[in-house]
UniProtKB/TrEMBL annotation, chain A:
<dbReference type="InterPro" id="IPR033985">
    <property type="entry name" value="SusD-like_N"/>
</dbReference>
<feature type="domain" description="RagB/SusD">
    <location>
        <begin position="256"/>
        <end position="572"/>
    </location>
</feature>
<dbReference type="InterPro" id="IPR011990">
    <property type="entry name" value="TPR-like_helical_dom_sf"/>
</dbReference>
<dbReference type="GO" id="GO:0009279">
    <property type="term" value="C:cell outer membrane"/>
</dbReference>
<comment type="similarity">
    <text>Belongs to the SusD family.</text>
</comment>
<dbReference type="Pfam" id="PF14322">
    <property type="entry name" value="SusD-like_3"/>
</dbReference>
<protein>
    <submittedName>
        <fullName>RagB/SusD family nutrient uptake outer membrane protein</fullName>
    </submittedName>
</protein>
<feature type="domain" description="SusD-like N-terminal">
    <location>
        <begin position="89"/>
        <end position="210"/>
    </location>
</feature>
<keyword id="KW-0998">Cell outer membrane</keyword>
<keyword id="KW-0732">Signal</keyword>
<dbReference type="Pfam" id="PF07980">
    <property type="entry name" value="SusD_RagB"/>
</dbReference>
<dbReference type="InterPro" id="IPR012944">
    <property type="entry name" value="SusD_RagB_dom"/>
</dbReference>
<keyword id="KW-0472">Membrane</keyword>
Amino acid sequence: MKNKLNIAILTFSIPFLMMGCNKVLDKTNLSAVGPDQVWSDVNMSTAYLNQIYFALMPGNTSGSGNETDEGVPYQKQTSEWLRGTATIDSWDNFKTYNSIRTINILLGNIDKATFSQADKDKIKGQALFWRAWAYHDLVSNYGGVPLILEAQSPTTDLTTLQKPRNKTSECVTQILKDIDNAIALLPDAFTDSDLGRVDKGVALAFKGRVLMFYASPLFNGLGGIASWQKAFDATKAAKEFLDGRGKGLYSPYNKIWDDELNKEVVMVRRYNYPQAVYFQGGLMPLNWSKDEVGKDRPSLELVNAFPMKDGSSWESQTRSYDTLFSNRDDRFYANIYYNGSPNQYLKGMRDDKTYLWTYFTSITNYSGVTGLEGAHNAVTQDPLWSNSSFYRIKAIDKTIDKGTVYNAAVDWIEIRYAEVLMNYAECANETGNTAAALDVLKQIRARAGVLPGISGNYGITAATQPDVRTAVLKERFVEFCFEGKRMNDLRRWKMFDYLRALPQRHGIAVLLKAGQPDVSPLSDISTVWNRFTSTVITTDAANIAIKDQYYIYAIPKTILDRNPLLKQNNNWGGDFDPLQ
Amino acid sequence: MPVKDALNLTKAVNGGISDEEINWVLKNNPNGDNYYKAAYSNPSSQRYAISVSGGNEKIRGYIGGSYVRENGFLPQVNYAKYNLRGNVQANLVKNLTLGLNMSTSNGTRSRFNFTYDYESDDLNNLWGKLLYWDVFASPYINGKPNNPGWLGNPIEMMRNGGYWRKDNQQIDALVTAEYKIPFVEGLSVKGTYSKNFDNGYVKTFAKKQQLYNFKKTGPNGLIYTDSLVGTVMSGDPGTPYLGNIYDRSNNYQLNTQINYDRSFGKHTVGALLVYEQFEGFTNNLELMRYNFPLIATDQFLYTSANNADWSTKGGEGQIGRLSYIGRINYDYDAKYLFSASVRRDGSTNFAPDRRWGWFPSVSAGWVVSRENFFSLSKIGQVVDFLKLRGSYATTGNDILDKDDPNSRWRWMEQYIIKDGSYYLGATGTPAPRLDYGGLSNSGLTWEKSNSTGIGVDATIFKNIRFSFDYWKRQSYDILGSRVLAIPIEFGATLPPENYGKVNSHGIEIELGYNNNIGKNFSYNVKGVFTYATNKVIKKDVAANAQDYANPNGKTLAYKYGYQALGIIRSESDLSKLPAGYTINGVAPAVGDMLLADLSGPDGKPDNKVDSYDQMVLGNYFGADNAPISYGLNISMSYKGFTVDALFSGLTGYKIEYNDPWGKGFGGGGKVPVYHADSWSTDNPNGSTPKLYPGGNPHSAGYQWTSTFNVYNGGFLRMKYLNINYKLPDAILNRLSMQDVRVFVAGSNLFNITKFKMYDPEILGFMSYPTSKTFTVGIDVRL
């Protein structure tokens, strides 16, 4: 009997005995840490800050050229903006508020952190910079947005979370305040393993960029908050600070994106495969790329904007497009790939021992619905060619091939010293200091390999304020092509009428003359150019009809639906005046 | 649509194709299915099983094994699994039964290496691509794999691009001990311990393939000639590699229970108390090595020795669960039945003070036909059996987001360590990242649902069986984070909460009839009908949502879109539109689908058809959400023959034309029927809108979801037909066998549906279709 009872007890109790020695429900998330750990350890806090960098530091603006006069659209797929068919839902970057919250959480905790004040200041300075950056991202697109400077807490009455839009001027004031606070906290430079973080020089340069943006005609200074004078002072301060740190223009121009961390680099996102992969899909000719196509194919408008070696403009030339490649400045060769250009800028081209040939052997229709119709040459078999015959070279990884196209690594330089200089020049010209502006233009052109000429003016003929303004904008167009700056330049100077007057972007149809033999893969274009004829073609689906309404974007419906206090911009049928 | 029409349509809309090139395709690839044919082989499967069992009073045993092999529809795609199971039950000590059940299985899934849908088992994505593959490039020219440009050659990739092979080994052991306590009759205690190991091992090997370039001709250079101009290595894989990926899980479940079962005269009483404990641990490790300096071979020794070509990844997870269950049942004379139970479940997904949930249930039944007053009444003469049932049950759910393991910890504030770094530093260093894990809610607890059901089972005239069920379910405290309810400027979702509420109800009716004709022929017919619907009572919604976007008061599976008013057929139709009328930002043209301007930012039509102009298009979208299902099962047997057939169908739901590539009109030789009757000046009575080249805003009429491209998804399918023959006993005896059966079966033999563009039960045009299968088999018992 006793034996039997023992069996019963044993059967029933073994599990309970086992349970006693391990806490079944006492589990933890093995891939997370708690808040007390994050804000008590400078390395943890820095890792949190890194997440902000990850989200906000820009990378390759691949494809942005399709939306401006820098490039032509893929297969005549003109964007809705340039077609004039954009709607209120066409532009949405309100997700930036996720980053703003991330930053606000940091700013709400950092003062209570238990590590040294110096470490706190460094982290806080960077966070303030990024908050300014994030708000500028929004305000430059939409005008004023709700200024949320503390991470809101969830409440039961959700309407208390709804905030109305602040005036554009209030937002810009806050952006400038955050930048100034950041400047005060940031070190002059980060070194070693921190190199690549936002330092004082970056914040000063960004301040110049911001002030210049709002000083320009689109926002017209917002009642003096961002006057040209303030913009000039800021760009001058940035330039002098960076000069003092040994920053400057790096020569030659085509090495800026090859020689990492050179002296021109002010603000940078570093890339390295496989830890951080640089995106360059769609930029390379399909022959040496895969499954993404048609981005940033240079337009003839851009090609024509590059000056000649002697500084004179293409428009002043009497030469034909057959030899458009001869005697141009260094930037032309560093940015534009043309039919047979003797530049094996891709590993695939070197492996295949060839240049890229963009000519056609026959053309049946110069104005097909999706582009040229005809037979592309077989020396470079590219089934989906560039509609302009040109390809972008800038900031492309030269070591990758077809298979490794998604393994690229090129440091993306968001702010180059050249931008600081050009901002300074523009602001100088607008404040009446035309001589300072011209001096910058000469420096920029000298670095671009333009010859000074007898007069020493590098081909620059502008002298009056309006002419220098035009010259500065054209110089920016070529110097910064495909760096994501063109659209904002067109917006801030309200140049959509220029786009509409084009009235389309153009390319060149390069055709092998009847009876001429195909080139060989490494033929010298300077001797075979006369086998081809070049014909200017249009590359848009329809004439550009971008509306002045689009200078400031609309707030999309999904965003308005979630906050009844948000008013639509008055250029999109609402009551909010984004220009105040 | 036919390749010829497709190419002509493409020529008219997109250009870039000449008649010479079209004629070449019609001659060389008339159905446009060269790739498809080169890839496709009839899938097949085989299954074998054998088992032995036996024993005596003291000890009983079972040993069984099975083997399954399936060959997919593409080369190198197959699955093989074997399974072994042994079971011993022993009564070595009086009243004590000990049991041991061990099983092990090994399944191997093999396929070629395909970068574009790495983890998919069914290769849906590739199937879809093959349907739309370029009609010009033949996969092989003179036996050499052709290079069709950037796309790569999928056929050569399948044959020579390496492989992906996953072994899944399972080892399960179950130990049971049951002891009947001798001094209390009906009382027993039982303990079970179940241990499960699950080891996944993937070996993946990817190598480049040599492809050949052929000279192309034709006015647009589309025609491949057989003149070889060079070779090239395929772009995929980008970098050849060899990888091993291990996934391991180690779980156990421990149960102890006290059981009481006893009858006293007409009273039968049962009671059960269970304690259940579960813990699971998972870990995974991925090891990859890229590049082969010598030759691409599937061995690590051949891979690059440079550690820049190596990568590793890994992770771990843990989970626990505790439950207490109690149940009692009682019945009187099999006439009054009653049962009640309660569970108390504890989950690691909630804070310690919120992790326990109570889930009680009760059910009762009354077999009316066993009452004398009934059985003796006139109705009782007709109704042989009648039972009334009722039940009430509660259940719980503790999973916030099954795809996000971090969602299990949202009851506490946490910062997630991100996979992947931010790269910076003078020499370049990957710097770690920490991300805020989202607002937490320490009050988070179980999601619950209550179900009530009533039912009737009856047998009438001996042969007619009937049952009817009505059920109602209320789900509340549904787990979720509200997103839309707050401004996007908040910058996050609200913390997860027990927020949502959904009510559902439905009925099920079954009616069967069985009978014999003569001694040898018997038949059985059964019809089933079910109806189910639901209504959202409380769900996340934007403060200013238009009615169509407000899920509250609607069914879960509703969908919205635009209202299509018909094709604009003439200039005069066009001139009837208000001045400034736009659709997708553009003034419509003749041939476009006219979409209705239903509203605007001020709540009234504004002549702009945009996101303000949507409406509810249907309450039930997708076959999974069909409110009505019905089926008819017929079986007949005559001597050793049995025929069994099932027809089943779904109705009452809609589907949206789902074909992302074809819907947008990509052009080429493969254009879906969806566009076959598109409007053009040559086809002014076309039933579908005019087509435009890619990127054109006029394409909204056929790209946007509207009443135009939403269809009735109802269908009736012949699910299966089985024919079975059992050898007569006389022959079996002579062969000294117990049972020998031969069977032939077919499934999904046909489908009756109004929607013809693809099977409405599957996700979309590019999904792998429901396959028609034929099976033959033999089953022998010795």
